[in-house]
Fold:
Amino acid sequence: MAKYSRIEVASQMKENGMVPLFFHSDIEVSKKVLKACYDGGSRLMEFTSRGDFAFEVFGALNKYALAELPGMMLGAGSVTDAAAASLYMQLGANFIVTPVFREDIAIACNRRKVLWSPGCGTLTEIARAEELGCEVVKLFPGDIYGPEFIKAVKGPCPWTSIMPTGGVLPTVESLTSWIGAGAFCVGLGSQLISKEILDNNDFDGLKTKVSQVLEIIKNIKINKG
Structure:
């Protein structure tokens, strides 16, 4: 079962302003990535279900988080159906992120009061997701739509919370454009947890990078008012 409610997760998304995401098949490497992000200040992590036996790695990683990283909210991403969502929730996923909008996943997550963030690309999809109880919509792939899409949606629907993923860079310019347009938070994958970092086991560098991104986001929000 999830340790944190969907409201707690959504609140943390708003506070952090960023959700790091990654997949690695090696549990020890995954632990080091999670610890580096935690030490850098992140209290959220999306582990993407993109490889064989990913659920086994997630289960071990969540046990590690519960035992060693108080306050860390680990969720599962790239979930494509209700059965997979249910499996990850049984392993303690605190939130479920999907590349597409599916009502079966909404029903499975709502039944357990777990936050689900569906990939949407139209205002109609966003509205339907919100009708089904979605707190935070994922805009995916973000680089196809751009910050102006969020700005346009927030006009008629100021209550909508959008998390762009894909196309977000860990730079002042990119983060300023997305958050300035009204992004609730951003998802950062390989641009944050790069292949180079993983190949070089540069977990101290990852910790620093996470800390820097969180500080950038904090300053943007302060300046935005």
Notes: Strands lie at 18-22, 44-48, 73-77, 95-98, 115-120, 137-139, 162-164, 186-188. The mean pLDDT is 97. The longest helix spans residues 203-224. The chain has eleven helices and eight strands.
